[in-house]
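Could you help me review a protein record that somebody else here produced? Do not assume that whoever made the record got everything right. The record follows directly below this note.
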Amino acid sequence: MAGGVLLSFEERELISRELSRNARCSTRVLGVLLGR
């Protein structure tokens, strides 16, 4: 279903913003896990 992949511009902006915000937390968590 290719239609599910085609998101509107607003949805892509919202998702990219969420990913960029979560990426910071993810990298910090990964750093803690790898630092052990």
In short: Residues 9-35 form the longest helix (27 residues).
